[in-house]
Amino acid sequence: MEPAKILVERGRQVTTIVINRPQARNALDNEAAHALSAALRAFETDGEARVAVLTGAGGAFCAGADLKELGGGTDYFPWAGSDDGPLRAPLSKPVIAAIEGHACAGGLGVALFCDIRIVDDTATFGVFSRRWGVPMSDGTTVRLPRIVGQGRALDMLLTGRAVGADEAIAIGLATRKVAPGTTRAEAEKLAAEIAAFPPIAMTSDRQSAYESFDRAQAAAIRREMELSLAARRQEAQQGAARFAGGEGRHGSFERK
């Protein structure tokens, strides 16, 4: 029996999703793309799960769509534009990418879908599908300019060149660089730290950041106020009381 193409490991608050096609550098065929979509939806609806980690097996993140399947005459569905695509819209909860090896073509789109991208020295980003005439239908042309800026995004989109870990950190494409082979462990550690925060304020601030791109400044600030209301009523006073009682002084976030 063929191994599952998408593996899911559930902790109490952190869910780890692994693209499991190492023989194809974790390229997604249609079956795997649908399975990834199902795994992300399951995380989204899991009442206990607060943060997800998305990674790839065998030293690669994701090499995009499976060109062997496409070259054999099977069309692939848009991962971002279709209603059942795995990358259609940000989830309501954070997703952290743990990236080693290639995150290229549609795999770049998978990385950009995540909120935080943790890399090691082996990480390589690029629109490598440029040379094969395969267009981006995974959200890359929309999300990449918002993350690295229009000029840098166009350079990557038009040239299809490789961007290594250090350049990715420098331009804001990657968030953090860690020791080789530790991206998953570091991502899961960070996920647990984020999951421990009061969830209402964390998720409302995140949602406001995403929604602000589609609004004028005044409307975005008004929306921030609306989104913050629940946290101000349910979490803020309790958190302020804990601080007043001595927690979190001198930069420490450890609970007493």
What is this structure, in a nutshell?
The protein has helices at residues 30-45, 67-71, 106-113, 140-148, 150-159, 165-171, 183-195, 199-211, 217-244, and strands spanning 6-10, 14-19, 51-56, 95-99, 102-104, 116-119, 124-126, 163-164, 176-177. It has 256 residues and is of the alpha/beta class. The strands form two sheets. It has a six-stranded mixed sheet with strand order 1-2-3-4-6-9, with helices on both faces.
**Chain-averaged pLDDT:** 90
Largest sheet: 6 strands, mixed
Shape: globular
**What is the helix fraction of residues, given as a range?**
40-55%
Strand order, main sheet: write it out.
Answer: 1-2-3-4-6-9
> Helix/strand/pairing class, anyone?
alpha/beta
- Strand residues, percent: 5-15%
H/I helix tally: 9
List low-pLDDT spans: none
- Gyration radius, to the nearest Å? 19 Å
The overall strand count is: 9
Structural account:
43% of the residues lie in helices and 14% in strands. The mean pLDDT is 90. With 256 residues, the protein is α/β, with parallel strands linked by helices. The strands form two sheets. The chain has a six-stranded mixed β-sheet with strand order 1-2-3-4-6-9, sandwiched between helices. α3 (106-113) crosses α4 (140-148). It has helices spanning 30-45, 67-71, 106-113, 140-148, 150-159, 165-171, 183-195, 199-211, 217-244; strands at residues 6-10, 14-19, 51-56, 95-99, 102-104, 116-119, 124-126, 163-164, 176-177. The radius of gyration is 19 Å and the shape is globular.
